[in-house]
Amino acid sequence: MRKKLLLSFICLSVAFVSFGQELANFRRVAVTSPEIGETTVTFRFSAPNAKLVRLYGSWMTSYDSSINMMKNDSTGVWSVSVAKPAVELYTYNFIVDGFPSTDPNNVIMQRDGTRYLSVLLIPGELTENYFEANQRGNLEKVWYDSPTIGMSRRMFVYTPYGYNTSGQKYPVLYLLHGGGGDEDAWSTMGRACQILDNLIEKKLAVPMICVMPNGNPGQAAARTLMIPEKTIDRNDPNSANLYVNSLVKDIIPYIEKNYRVIADPDHRAISGLSMGGGHTLSASNLYPGTFSYILPLSMGVGANQTDIDKNLQGVKNAGYKLYWVGVGREDFVWQSAQNLDAALTRNGLEHTFFVTDGGHTWSNWRIYLNTFARLLFK
Amino acid sequence: MRKKLLLSFICLSVAFVSFGQELANFRRVAVTSPEIGETTVTFRFSAPNAKLVRLYGSWMTSYDSSINMMKNDSTGVWSVSVAKPAVELYTYNFIVDGFPSTDPNNVIMQRDGTRYLSVLLIPGELTENYFEANQRGNLEKVWYDSPTIGMSRRMFVYTPYGYNTSGQKYPVLYLLHGGGGDEDAWSTMGRACQILDNLIEKKLAVPMICVMPNGNPGQAAARTLMIPEKTIDRNDPNSANLYVNSLVKDIIPYIEKNYRVIADPDHRAISGLSMGGGHTLSASNLYPGTFSYILPLSMGVGANQTDIDKNLQGVKNAGYKLYWVGVGREDFVWQSAQNLDAALTRNGLEHTFFVTDGGHTWSNWRIYLNTFARLLFK
After folding, report:
1. Beta-carbon neighbour count of residue B58 at 10 Å?
2. Model pLDDT for residues A81-115, shown as the tens digit of each residue
3. A52/B49 touch (CB, cutoff 8 Å), yes or no
4. How far is B68 from chain A (nearest CA, A)?
């Protein structure tokens, strides 16, 4: 009877699902999209009444290169096959009569700030660590008190495979997002958990905890939580470094109290992209000796040498193990990153200036994490 | 100089954001949508070339009641103001020339299986516990080994506010999703963390851990992770109860080993909706005495009394503290839920038959959790 009972549950459930989809989602025609073939990728999309549907993918260089999809009038399904782009993680839209839509048949989506985009992940050597590993760590959405900012705030904390049972203590990477992002960015667009899981499983990186805070001091958490925001006057010198102060005074003590971590500078790394690269520079400059691994990404410094040199001398005197700057040749911060490279050389700080093709993109930030995580805590 | 430096980061970040949005999201016109007023809700949507845009919301009873939006031809923005629906959490689509799209200006989205829907949350007494509380627990995405199913699987574990520092042990609610759902369903569509946070902060519920597993035995995790699935023949008697067995043999031991829980039947509750209500019945029938709190939602039993009575006598003899059945009058399982109510009465099991308006909906499942969580572990 249990079997019969269970079968009846299944029938009911199936009935429920189709019913729900019919009601909430009428006229959605389920088609396979995207379909990754040997040499092509096929996109499909049902919009019987649309006049023009175009495909725009992040592998294209501009809107003008978006592609017209062809409609099969007997089914109303638009489709197009494009040459398979190079191995990478891309996002794409369908442009339906001029407005951009995600792919309703692709469950893999990313949120970039307030925008949702469909994801195309082309398998290959570059992206092999972007897929799920066999041994996976956990990701916790953690609320902590920030006396410095004066609110309860949320961060994401990754603990490596085996953390619960190993009993051992771990080093910590503080990984910071950029402008427009939040505490969710590195674990979704950045594939940080998959990259760390794979590198640790392959013994290419040492097991580490990764802390991903929210770098917008006015926000308690990502806007998806609908929590009212505080206005922070960043021009006010007292609040200019509010987030960086809270990182060192609130977040690090919370992590070192609540997780099994090795609580010393040689087991603390800090990295961030764009605005988070700025936070990385501010944190290492304001709190020299706190982080032995300093890795600003897609960020640099201005032309004023005096203050920069004073700061870097402070970092040099406090000591560090790795200073690693990642940037793309086509990044609009290329010049300021070169300023940073020159300032580090001028001040006699041993460092790596890791230059890639491309610009201010998640493609590069994933590559940088997949590269520098192998160098940490060794 | 730090101030100047930080300001330059901000300028760069802003540049980056606009740049990124321009490239990835051209022609998206940012408008305010939805805008919740005193008596109306206004939806806005830019689609200059669309011929017909309709609004479909889950508060409407059928597709035919979807509403035509009006286009302002000078701006290409479509908009409509509707009478504010009753206080509740709703989902909605824009139907653009016949195809359903989410609202590109609403960051609040839900995934129901493979579908994404925009969310409209009307504030009021019914929904006050669906918003973020002041004191919030953490949510962890946990990987555990399931020898019973033969794979590493993911579940979500909610720990209440103060768990990290209290040092105390907690009771556990095992909360199961329905057909088409996964481990993500209760914490998103079900607002489970917000409901528990609010009830615990208001001292209406005792602090508890809430475990939300994935009830599809062929899946390691939600499909958003792109992990290949196993085919499970549910007609095979050996696999018919595979998930329920893994819940009792793999999940409960993992939770009781890795979290500070009170590991006895009086501090274990099990509830689930639809298919998860079936799992709740199977788990309590197959493992009598394991759960002192048994709460099947929107589920029932067939007409065959002999086996049902045998199972319920087993539950009765093993003992329990609360047997609570929730269902809506318009639910397509209404008859089978009435069968369950009758069977419980016939067999002399004290129980609550909690009947609401409405049908097989998340609206009801949120109401049931918001109701029964106050009764647990007291």
Report:
1. 21
2. 999 999 999 999 998 888 889 999 999 999 988 88
3. yes
4. 15
